[in-house]
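A quick aside before the break. I want you to see a complete sequence-to-structure record at least once, exactly as it would be stored in a machine-readable document. Don't worry about memorizing anything.
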Amino acid sequence: MPIKQRFLVVKEKDSKTITYMDYDKSAGYLVNPKNNLKFRDAINVKSMVLINPTLIEKMVDIKARKRFNNLINILSIIYEDEEGGGDGLMLAKNEAEKFRMEIINKYRKYLSDEKIELYENKLSILEDELNLRLEYLNQNEYSLGDEEKTSNRSR
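That is the input. The structure line, written in tokens, reads:
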């Protein structure tokens, strides 16, 4: 059974040593590698804890920006679909709300207040647009339903 060991690799000008550090007591951001790539002459890493606050903020900002861009791509696909009903819009609205909760619950302690406010503003603009489109779609369905009722009368 392998022994769980945690090490900190410190690179300084004079010495290159590996030092033991207790990660449970230090505040940091846990990052897992994207792929399980194994290299012959390298150290294989299962997870890393980032301690540098600027590096943590950059990593979290990259993740949040990538998630926001995915949300924008979903919206562009839904907007281009001419037959699409309210299902796609409701899905996009749920994804936007999920992303908002993720920023509030998961990333608040790592991002600066300015970036959180920026993401909140962007999400509120997207949600307003989604609400307008849903409202427009519901009005069109309601008016089409009235026209069908009046046109189906016989005499």
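Two observations worth writing down. Helices lie at 53-80, 86-107, 113-151. Residues 96 and 123 are 7 Å apart (CA to CA). We'll return to this after the break.
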